[in-house]
C-alpha cells in the first residue's frame, strides 16, 4: 500500500480550497468554480511507496496534463485530464459550466497506467477529434504504450495506436501533430524523456549526436502510418534529452513550422529551424544569447503584435530573494564556462522571455519584463485574459515535494543521514521523502501592459489560491466571448476558472482545413484593425503536457469592427475577410483560399556588413578571472577593451586608426596611404603588450601640428604596483611615426578609467584630465582624478587636486564649457555614482554639486557623449548605463568593508526590501569568504531572512563605505540654461548595458543620430549576463524626436564605435571584446 504520511498536508490544502471556494470571488476577473457546480471533480492524487517515489522516478511530481477540444462537434469545448496514479478523465461540456464525466463509456480512462501529456487531433481526417495520450512511469502493465483513441462519433473512442505506428513505449511526455514537410498531412513530434539517471552523464562533447531508440522522435506520416525519421531530419534523439516541452511556431516567418524543445537538467534546449528540405537545422546558439537551464514548459506567441513570434520558457527560480536563497542553487563560473566550451549552451537558472527581433535574433528580456522568477513553474501560456488586444501570461506553479530545498539537501539527504536511516530502517527512501519540504504556492498571472512590460495581476485576477499545479489549458468553455482556464493539480481537485471579462470585444475563428489537415494545423490568422495587427497560430499542443482547443480567440479592446482578417493556410495559400463585425465566432473554410507569395517580415535594412579586408584587427582578451581575486564580485571588470580612436596622422586627409590591445596583446596603429590601410609602429607598441589598453586619445601635445597619442591602461589582472598600469604618451614624429616618451607620467600606477584633453588653463597648450577606474585590489573604493599640466612642449606635470580626491570609479570624462565663461569645465561619469560637473575657475576646478540636475542620478554609468542633439543651442548629454534587464535594481546598495578582519576589504551588494538591506549573495558564497558567519547561520532558512544588521551589527552603516543605485536606464539629459533634464532612452536600449556611444548624422539629413553598443558576458551564472543587444541606431527625425530603435545586427560585447567614410559610404567600425572588429555601412 502507498505511504500516507503526507495526507494531513493534502487534507489541509483541500480545506484551504474549500474555504476559498466558499468565498465570493465573482468580483475577480477569474472565478474559481466549485466542483459540485461544474461536475469536474478530477484530482491527480499521488502517494509514494518505497519502490516508486521521486528517488526511483525523477518525474514523480511532474504532474499531468489537460487537453481541450470539441469531441462531439456541438460547439462546446470538452475537457480531458490525464492522471498519474489515477485514471484519466473525459468531461463532456453540457453548457453553462456543467460537465459530465463520460470516461468509462468513452473508453479513454487509460486505467492503472501513468499518463503524462495528451492532445486532440483529427488523425483519420474525418472532421472529428481523436485523442493521443502519452504514457510514462514504471515499466510494465497493460497498455503501457502511448494510446491513440479514434473518435467513433458517438461519444465513444476506439484505441488504434498500433494501426498508425503510434503505440510507442517509453517515458513519453507530450506529442504535437503538425505538417513539418508541407505535404498536406499531419506528422508528429514525440517528446520522450531519457531513461538514464541524470547523474550518469558528464559534460562530454557531442553526446546529443548519438541516437537512442528511446529518445525523442520525429514521426513522418506516410499514408496514415507514422515512421521515425529523426536522424535523417536532423532531430536529436540521444540519451541526454530530458525534454519537458514542445513548442511549435513559424519563428522566422517563412511559413514553414519550426520547433522548440525545452530540456531539463544540463542539456541545452533545441531550436529547430525548418530547412524546407524535409528536415530541421538546430540553431539555438545562433538565435539565442541565453536560455533556461532547467527548462520546463514553454509557449510561443506574438506578444507585442509585430507579427514575430516570441517565446517564454519556465524554470524553477523563486520570485523572492529570500526563497531564492533557500531553494536555488547555482553553477560556479568555472563549471559554467566548461559547459559552454563543451557545447551545452549559455544556460541560466531562471525563466527566459525571448523577444523575436527578426534577422535570426532573439533578445532575452525576462528581467526587464518582470517575469524571470515565478517559483517552480511548469506551464507558460500566453492568451488575452481581458480581451484588450494584448496577450497576457499565465504560469502554473508548485512542486509537491521540494527535493531542491537547500536545508533538506544539506541536513537530511546527505550521505551520513542516509547511512543512519539504512541502519535504523529499510524504508529509507520513504523516510527521506516524508521529511522533504512541501508548500503549495499560487499560480502566476501577468497582465501585458504593452512594450513587453508585465504587471503581476495574480491576486487582482483571482489566482491567489495555493496549489501544486502542472498542465493547464485555456478556451472559451461557456461561449461567452472570453477565455476560461483549466488547471490539473496534484493532490487537489482540478481548477476550472470562469472568465468574467465583459469590458472589451472579441472575435473567434475556427478554420476548416483541407482533406488531410481538417483543422488547418499550422495555419496563421492575422486580424487587422485601425492600423494594428494581431496574429495567432493554429498549434494546439502548448504549455506543459497540454493542448488548447482549435478555436482561435482575439481580444479587440474597444473596437467593434475589424478591417480585415487574413488567413495564411498551412499550404501557404491565403484567404481574406473584410469588414468583419466583432463579438462573433466565425468559421472560415479552405475553399476561400488563393495561392500567395511568401512574405518574410522585419528584415534588417538599416545596416550592411562590409568586407573586413579594409581594416583587420582582432581583440584577444586574456583569461584572467576577477572572481579568483575578489570572490564576492557579481561580475568581472577586466574586459573593457578594445578602445578605437581615429585621426589623420599622416596628412593624407584620410582617417587613421588606433586599436587597443588586451593584456598580452600589443595595440595596433593602422595608417592609410589613400588607397589602403596597413599596420604601423608595431615594434613601439609591442614593448607594452603586457598592458591592457582601454582608453586612448589623439591630441597635439607638443604644438607641432600633428596628432600625438595618449594611451591609458586598466584591468584587475595586475598588482597595484604593476608597471603595466602606467599610462603612456607616444610622440608623432611625422607621417604617423610614433615613439614612446620615456618619462613616467604619474607618481604611482593605477587603472585608468577616463581621459579627456583640453586647454584647461587657457595658456595655449593641451592639458589632460585622467581619472582612476577603480582601485585594482578592491572594487568599490573610489579613485583619484589628476590633471597633467602641459608646459607647451609636451612635458607634463602631475597634479592631484583635493577636489578630485575620492572622485569615484570613473569610466568616462568629457570637457564642456558648461557656464560659458570661456574655460572648459569637466563632466565625469562612473559606476555607483552620479555624473559630476566640475566648474573650471581659471584653471582650478570646483565641484558643482546641486546646480545641474545630476546629483541624484547614481548609476552604473559607462560612457558619455556630448552634442547639441536638438539644435537648440544647448549641449546635451547621452549617457550609457547598465540598463533595466539585469540583476541590478534601484535601491540596491554596495557595502565595502573588511568584514572578516583579515586586512582585505570586501564588497557586499544588497537589495533593499521592507526597510532593510539583504545581501544578494548565496549563503555558501558569502560564508566561504567570511567563515565566521557559519556558526550563527547554520540553516539556509535563517540566512534567507538575515539583513546586514543581523549579519554584521547595526554599526555596519557607520563603518562601511556604502553606495546606492538610483538610476539604471541609459538616457539623454537635455541641456538648458537651468541644467539638464533626463529623458530615458527607448526600452529596447535598456535590454543591456551601453558601453559605447556615437553621435553623428549617419543619414545626412541634418540631424544627429545616436548609435549605441554594449553587452557584458562575464557575470556570474546566478546573476546572468547582459547580452540582449546587437547594437542599436536611433535615427533622429527632428527636434530631438527619434525613430524606433533599429538593430545593427552585431553580436558580441561592443566596446567602441567610430565612424569613417568608405568610398563615399558612411560606415561605422565596432570594436568587440575578444573578437574581430566589425564594419557596417549605415543605410
**Average pLDDT rating:** 94
- Poorly predicted runs are 1-11
Number of helices: 17
**Shape category:** globular
Tell me what portion of residues adopts beta-strand conformation: 35-45%
Distance between the termini: 73 Å
Please tally the β strands and state the result: 77
> How many strands, which pairing sense, and closed or not: the largest β-sheet?
5 strands, antiparallel
Structural class: mainly beta
Evaluate the radius of gyration.
32 Å
* Strand order within the widest beta sheet: 35-34-39-40-42
Helix content: under 10%
Labels describing this entry:
1083 residues; mainly beta; five-stranded antiparallel β-sheet; 36% strand; globular; disordered N terminus
What does this structure look like?
- It is built from 17 helices and 77 strands.
- By secondary structure, the chain is mainly beta.
- Strands 35-34-39-40-42 form a five-stranded antiparallel sheet, with no helix packed on it.
- Mean pLDDT is 94; it is low at 1-11.
Amino acid at each position: 500500500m502507498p505511504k500516507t504520511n503526507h495526507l494531513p498536508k493534502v487534507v489541509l490544502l483541500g480545506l484551504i480550497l474549500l474555504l476559498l471556494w466558499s468565498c465570493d470571488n465573482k468580483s475577480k476577473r477569474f472565478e474559481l468554480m466549485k466542483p459540485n457546480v461544474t461536475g469536474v471533480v478530477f484530482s491527480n492524487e499521488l502517494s509514494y511507496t518505497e519502490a516508486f517515489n521521486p528517488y526511483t522516478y525523477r518525474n514523480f511530481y511532474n504532474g499531468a496534463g489537460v487537453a481541450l477540444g470539441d469531441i462531439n462537434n456541438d460547439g462546446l469545448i470538452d475537457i480531458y485530464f490525464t492522471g498519474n496514479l489515477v485514471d484519466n478523465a473525459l468531461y463532456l461540456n453540457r453548457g453553462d459550466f456543467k460537465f459530465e464525466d463520460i470516461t468509462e463509456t468513452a473508453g479513454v480512462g487509460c486505467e492503472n497506467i501513468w499518463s503524462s501529456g495528451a492532445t486532440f487531433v483529427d488523425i483519420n481526417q474525418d472532421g472529428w477529434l481523436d485523442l493521443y495520450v502519452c504514457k510514462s512511469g514504471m515499466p510494465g502493465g497493460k497498455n503501457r504504450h502511448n494510446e491513440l483513441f479514434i473518435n467513433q462519433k458517438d461519444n465513444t473512442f476506439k484505441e488504434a495506436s498500433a494501426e498508425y505506428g503510434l503505440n510507442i513505449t517509453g517515458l513519453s511526455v507530450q506529442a504535437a501533430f503538425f505538417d513539418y514537410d508541407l505535404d498536406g498531412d499531419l506528422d508528429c513530434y514525440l517528446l520522450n524523456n531519457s531513461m538514464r539517471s541524470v547523474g550518469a552523464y558528464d559534460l562530454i562533447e557531442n553526446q546529443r549526436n548519438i541516437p537512442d531508440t528511446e529518445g525523442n522522435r520525429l514521426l513522418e506520416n506516410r499514408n496514415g502510418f507514422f515512421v521515425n525519421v529523426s536522424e535523417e531530419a536532423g532531430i536529436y534523439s540521444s540519451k541526454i534529452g530530458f525534454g519537458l516541452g514542445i513548442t511549435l511556431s513559424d519563428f522566422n516567418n517563412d511559413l514553414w513550422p519550426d520547433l522548440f524543445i525545452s530540456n531539463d537538467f544540463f542539456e541545452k534546449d533545441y531550436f529547430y529551424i525548418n530547412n524546407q528540405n524535409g528536415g530541421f537545422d538546430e540553431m539555438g546558439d545562433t538565435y539565442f544569447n541565453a536560455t533556461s537551464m532547467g527548462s520546463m514548459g514553454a509557449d510561443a506567441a506574438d506578444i507585442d503584435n509585430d507579427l514575430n513570434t516570441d517565446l517564454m520558457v519556465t524554470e524553477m527560480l523563486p520570485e523572492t530573494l529570500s526563497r531564492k536563497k533557500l531553494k536555488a542553487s547555482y553553477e560556479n563560473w568555472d563549471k559554467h564556462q566548461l559547459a559552454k566550451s563543451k557545447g551545452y549552451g549559455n544556460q541560466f537558472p531562471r525563466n527566459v522571455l525571448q523577444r523575436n527581433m527578426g534577422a535570426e535574433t532573439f533578445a532575452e528580456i525576462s528581467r526587464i519584463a518582470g517575469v524571470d522568477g515565478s517559483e517552480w513553474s511548469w506551464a507558460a501560456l500566453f492568451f488575452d485574459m481581458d480581451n484588450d488586444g494584448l496577450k497576457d501570461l499565465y504560469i502554473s506553479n508548485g512542486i509537491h515535494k521540494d527535493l531542491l530545498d537547500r536545508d533538506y539537501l544539506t541536513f537530511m539527504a546527505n550521505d551520513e543521514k542516509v547511512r543512519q536511516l539504512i541502519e535504523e530502517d529499510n524504508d529509507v527512501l520513504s523516510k527521506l521523502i516524508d521529511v522533504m519540504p512541501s508548500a503549495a504556492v499560487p499560480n502566476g498571472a501577468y497582465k501585458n501592459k504593452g512594450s513587453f512590460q508585465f504587471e503581476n495581476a495574480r491576486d487582482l485576477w483571482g489566482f491567489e489560491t495555493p496549489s501544486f499545479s502542472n498542465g493547464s489549458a485555456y478556451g472559451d468553455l461557456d461561449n461567452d466571448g472570453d477565455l476560461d482556464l483549466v488547471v490539473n493539480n496534484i493532490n487537489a481537485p482540478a481548477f476550472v476558472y470562469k472568465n468574467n471579462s465583459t469590458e472589451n470585444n472579441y472575435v473567434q475563428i475556427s478554420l476548416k482545413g483541407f482533406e488531410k489537415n481538417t483543422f488547418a494545423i499550422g495555419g496563421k490568422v492575422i486580424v487587422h484593425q485601425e492600423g494594428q495587427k494581431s496574429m495567432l497560430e493554429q498549434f494546439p499542443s502548448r504549455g506543459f503536457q497540454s493542448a488548447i482547443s482549435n478555436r482561435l480567440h482575439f481580444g479587440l479592446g474597444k473596437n467593434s469592427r475589424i478591417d480585415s482578417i487574413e488567413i495564411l493556410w498551412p499550404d501557404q495559400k491565403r484567404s481574406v475577410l473584410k469588414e468583419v463585425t466583432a463579438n462573433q465566432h466565425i468559421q472560415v473554410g479552405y475553399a476561400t483560399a488563393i495561392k500567395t507569395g511568401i512574405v518574410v517580415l522585419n528584415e534588417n535594412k538599416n545596416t550592411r556588413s562590409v568586407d573586413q579586408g579594409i581594416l583587420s584587427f582582432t581583440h584577444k582578451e586574456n583569461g584572467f578571472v576577477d572572481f579568483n581575486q575578489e570572490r564576492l564580485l557579481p561580475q568581472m571588470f577586466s574586459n573593457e577593451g578594445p578602445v578605437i580612436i581615429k585621426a589623420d596622422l599622416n596628412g593624407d586627409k584620410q582617417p587613421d586608426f588606433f586599436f587597443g590591445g588586451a593584456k598580452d596583446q600589443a595595440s595596433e596603429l593602422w595608417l592609410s596611404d589613400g588607397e589602403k590601410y596597413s599596420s604601423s609602429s608595431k615594434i613601439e607598441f609591442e614593448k607594452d603588450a603586457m598592458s591592457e589598453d582601454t582608453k586612448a586619445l589623439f591630441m597635439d601635445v607638443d604644438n607641432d601640428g600633428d596628432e600625438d597619442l595618449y594611451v591609458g591602461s586598466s584591468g584587475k589582472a595586475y598588482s597595484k604596483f604593476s608597471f603595466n598600469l602606467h599610462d603612456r604618451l607616444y610622440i608623432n614624429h611625422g607621417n604617423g611615426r610614433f615613439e614612446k616618451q620615456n618619462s613616467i607620467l604619474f607618481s604611482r600606477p593605477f587603472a585608468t578609467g577616463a581621459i579627456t584633453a583640453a586647454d584647461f588653463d587657457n595658456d595655449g597648450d593641451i592639458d589632460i584630465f585622467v581619472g582612476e577606474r577603480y582601485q585594482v585590489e578592491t572594487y568599490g573604493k573610489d579613485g583619484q582624478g589628476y590633471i597633467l599640466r602641459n608646459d607647451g612642449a609636451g612635458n607634463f606635470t602631475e597634479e592631484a587636486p583635493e577636489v578630485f580626491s575620492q572622485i569615484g570609479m570613473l569610466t568616462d570624462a568629457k570637457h564642456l564649457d558648461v557656464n560659458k565663461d570661456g574655460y572648459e569645465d569637466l563632466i565625469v561619469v562612473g559606476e555607483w555614482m552620479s555624473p559630476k560637473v566640475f566648474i573650471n575657475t581659471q584653471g582650478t576646478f570646483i565641484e558643482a554639486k546641486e546646480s545641474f540636475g545630476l546629483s541624484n542620478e547614481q548609476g552604473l554609468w559607462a560612457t558619455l557623449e556630448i552634442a547639441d542633439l536638438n539644435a537648440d543651442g544647448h549641449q546635451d548629454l547621452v549617457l550609457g548605463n547598465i540598463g533595466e534587464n539585469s540583476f541590478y535594481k534601484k535601491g540596491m546598495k554596495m557595502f565595502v568593508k573588511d568584514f572578516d578582519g583579515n586586512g582585505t576589504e570586501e564588497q557586499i551588494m544588497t537589495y533593499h526590501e521592507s526597510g532593510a538591506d539583504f545581501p544578494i549573495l548565496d549563503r555558501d558564497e558569502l560564508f566561504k569568504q567570511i567563515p565566521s558567519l557559519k556558526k550563527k547561520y547554520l540553516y539556509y532558512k535563517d540566512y534567507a531572512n538575515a539583513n546586514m544588521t543581523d549579519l554584521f551589527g547595526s554599526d555596519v552603516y557607520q563603518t562601511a563605505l556604502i553606495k546606492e543605485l538610483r538610476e539604471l536606464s541609459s538616457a539623454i539629459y537635455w541641456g538648458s540654461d537651468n541644467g539638464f533634464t533626463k529623458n530615458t532612452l527607448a526600452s529596447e536600449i535598456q535590454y543591456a548595458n551601453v558601453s559605447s556611444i556615437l553621435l553623428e548624422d549617419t543619414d545626412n539629413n541634418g540631424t544627429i543620430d545616436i548609435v549605441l553598443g554594449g553587452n557584458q558576458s562575464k557575470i556570474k551564472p546566478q546573476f546572468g549576463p547582459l547580452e540582449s543587444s546587437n547594437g542599436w541606431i536611433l535615427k533622429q527625425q527632428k527636434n530631438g524626436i527619434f525613430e524606433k530603435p533599429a538593430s545593427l545586427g552585431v553580436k558580441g560585447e561592443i566596446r567602441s564605435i567610430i565612424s569613417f567614410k568608405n568610398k563615399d559610404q558612411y560606415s561605422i567600425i565596432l570594436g568587440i571584446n575578444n573578437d574581430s572588429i566589425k564594419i557596417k555601412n549605415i543605410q
